[in-house]
Amino acid sequence: MSTDSILIIGSGGQLGTELCETLRGMYGDAKVVATDVRPLTGSIAESGPTEVLDILDKQRFTEILDQYKPTQIYHLAALLSATAERQPKLGWTLNMDGLFHVLDAAKERNISKIYWPSSIAVFGPNTPRDQTPQHCVMDPNTIYGITKLAGERYCEYYFEKHGVDVRSIRYPGLIGYKSAPGGGTTDYAVDIYHQALQQGKYECFLSEDTELPMLYMPDALRATINLMEAPAENIKIRSSYNVAGMSFTPDQIAASIRNEIPGFEISYAPDYRQQIANSWPKSIDDGTARMDWGWKPEYDLQAMTGDMLLHLREMNSIKS
Q1: Does the predicted model carry a pTM greater than 0.90?
Q2: CATH classification of 6-172+217-242 is 3.40.390.10, yes or no?
Q3: Exactly one of 68, 74, 115, 144 is catalytic; which is it?
Q4: For 174-214+245-282+298-315, which CATH class?
Q5: CA angle (208, 211, 212) in 5-degree steps
């Protein structure tokens, strides 16, 4: 499990923060270069090399590639669903031009593997919503979803035409305790735990029966790294793999919290994110990922809730 150098683009986000820590633990702090559009702070900045990088700045990107000569790139920088809806042109430019810069670099340089995350946002109103299959109708009606669908097609194209070893997962909602919500439609399922401990109540921007697929961060990290560690011949999908952990509604996550915090209360005030959620799947069929590279989640809803609250209490010195 040796590697020369790994570059992470977008290390300051929810996934990037934890992925950086995990990869540094695997490969060594000095071998994982963390970048973000803003200066990184805290443990990431203290434990290994960091750089400021706006992936739209191709000259700066080239300078970093020349300096560190990475053999793997994890390209995580993107404008997420709710934020991209408010800034659609920026969403398209950042999500697409940034990907082109990375794919072109992989084609032109000795970069052995590229990781680029897709999302369940690639699905749309005419996609089967229950056990959404790997191959089906994809008609996204959000800027974020449109960029992710276009990105999937370009990743597959660069693999087929240029031999770029690009790998991808269609993430459902990601839930973790190490970073704050980042502007996604599923981020209520992160904020609800913080508010449960701080306020004992939460007002949800989705309706109580909005069922969406989710993935706990330890499972998301394991899936990502397992995919990247898998032999190339096992990777049959070069657009993006369906991966799932669990599906639940706001009402169900609230019930799981009440098992730990009996007095917890939830109320509902659906906003513009409800329409986005209504176009997404309720559950995901990830049988292809299970078959190709052995994917299997470890956490269900109640196990995740117990672990989230345990860690958040520890981080904030809150007694049970």
Answers
A1: yes
A2: no
A3: 144
A4: alpha beta
A5: 130
